[in-house]
Amino acid sequence: MDKDAKPLEDYNFFDPQVIECPYSFYKLARQQAPVMELPAPIAGAKLFLVTRYDLVMQILQNVEVFSSNFSALQGGKAQQDAQLQEIYAQGWPQVNTLLTADPPEHERFRALVNKAFTASRVNKIQDYIEQVVDELIDQFIDQGECEFISSFASPLPIKVIATQLGVPQADLPKFKKWSDAFIIRMSQMSSKEQEIECAKDIVAFQHYFYDRIEERRKQPQDDIISDLVQAKVAGERSLDMAELLNIIQQLLVAGNETITNALAGGMLLLIQNPEQMQAVQAEPSQVDNLVEEILRMESPTAGMWRVVQQDTELEGAFLPAGSFVMVRFDSANRDPVKFPDGESFSISRQNASSHLSFGHGIHFCLGAMLARKEMQIAYKRLLRRLKHIRLAPLKNDLKHQPNILLRGLKHLYIQFNGDSK
Hints:
Helix content: 40-55%
Shape: globular
Distance between the termini: 51 Å
């Protein structure tokens, strides 16, 4: 045990301070209780935390025992609150599609969405991503400093996913607001006032995209919404409105929030490891592996839920049917058994791409290709055009958003020497 570490029983996983900096806790948990029952049951059901890489993999691969149908947890506090239920009744119900569907339903949704998320579509927008990256850098490079998240890490993926969906750039502020609402609702750490505001935003999102969907039914375009509206597999029915809205919601959140967090977290890692930054700047061909190592270290999706379908045992722990499991990707991705010296950031790590930041198995992130493409282009351009990147003095507290599932910095103020060309 580290000299200054607390005993494992003194940690509370739901403590905001632990969520902010969980790595000492994870180290002890992996060693002493890699399948740990948490003293905070959900709706009366037992809750377990799984922190070791091999055990997380076992869970992700065993879809019969560990179900992805955790939709009851996505509703936030709405299930027990009449005021929230009244707001949500003005929109469409949450349904299981990609994230919370199990086989065989999951295969159908995945096949339909795969038709819209092809490699050719991703490759076709490479020039556009490069253009957006350079335009964003152009806006702040002559100032020698910026707040990196609002100036770059947030607008880049929002612009890209908006273009892919086929919606106007003028509506980007709405998308960010709506995406934040979904994230806050999933955080398990929101106030009643936040829940009400989020409910209103989510219903507004649904009505906005209802109109876009109806437009594409009448006049299809070359975009993901049109592909989803028209998609059919093996003669089955097409997606209904609630399913379409649920899938677009997932694409909107996954297509921007996680990339924003990875871009910002990766920039901080480079600043904190200047020798690694210099190595990539000297040899830009290392950017692809840099991206994988950032995804491993930052794990923008820190964890995900699973529901135990039948009594089972895992690493000596008894998990009763109906209990919930939280698989912690940000712990598994630092497991020293899989990643030697896993707490260290190394752009030359040979197995960096073995991280679980995109999940594994049937729920592997369908936007992984697009996320990697955006991050690769972003870091190549940023590290070429910005030199001596450093933290702006007296402006950073380096705190993260309070969220159990997603991990992302609130702000990142940087300074640099710029090359406008």
